[in-house]
Amino acid sequence: MTMTIGPEHAMAQLAASLAFADAGASPSVIRLYADAAVAAGATPTTSPLAEITLAKPCGTVAAGNLTLHPADTAGTLVLVSGTPRAARWISGDGLLVAAGTVTDMANYGDFRVAGGTTAPGDDTPMLYAGGLVLLGDVVFD
């Protein structure tokens, strides 16, 4: 059996997630990794391909959704070339908020990005060091 929570409770949970992510002096960030195991919460063993800094506050809660907002809508510099398969959302205190999969804008990963070229048959773009990556819509409901 699956328990269902009320809509007001769901909104309170989303607001709490936003407050948790914005805790601390630093803004929260989303780090993109080539290691797919990171999506399941594994500790990264390599450096991130890119680190997207979020605005502070990092998102908004409305109509039953928490939507994240990057600090720079023009994009973030890619530090290392690679194909992002996983992302970690890290709070301003350096704690894990969430981890999940990464895809391009045409697919349905937990975190969607633009800025690279997706090879035929793949669902995630190749990012190149020195280029820009854009965070697409990230909505938690």
Brief sketch in words of this structure:
By secondary structure, this protein is mainly β. Helix content is 11%, strand content 35%.
Name its key features.
11% helix, single chain, globular, 1 helix, 35% strand, 141 residues, mainly beta
In words, what does this structure look like?
The protein is mainly beta and 141 residues long. Helix content is 11%, strand content 35%. The chain has one helix and nine strands, in the order H-E-E-E-E-E-E-E-E-E. It has one helix at 7-22; strands at residues 29-33, 50-62, 65-70, 76-77, 86-90, 96-104, 111-114, 132-135, 139-140. Strands 4-8-7-6-5-1-2-3-9 form a nine-stranded mixed beta sheet, with helices on one face. A hairpin with a 2-residue loop joins strand 2 and strand 3. The radius of gyration is 15 Å and the shape is globular. The model has no long low-confidence stretch (mean pLDDT 92).
Q: How is the topology of this model organized?
A:
Layout: H1 7-22, E1 29-33, E2 50-62, E3 65-70, E4 76-77, E5 86-90, E6 96-104, E7 111-114, E8 132-135, E9 139-140
Parallel strand pairs: 6-7
Antiparallel strand pairs: 1-2, 1-5, 2-3, 3-9, 4-8, 5-6, 7-8
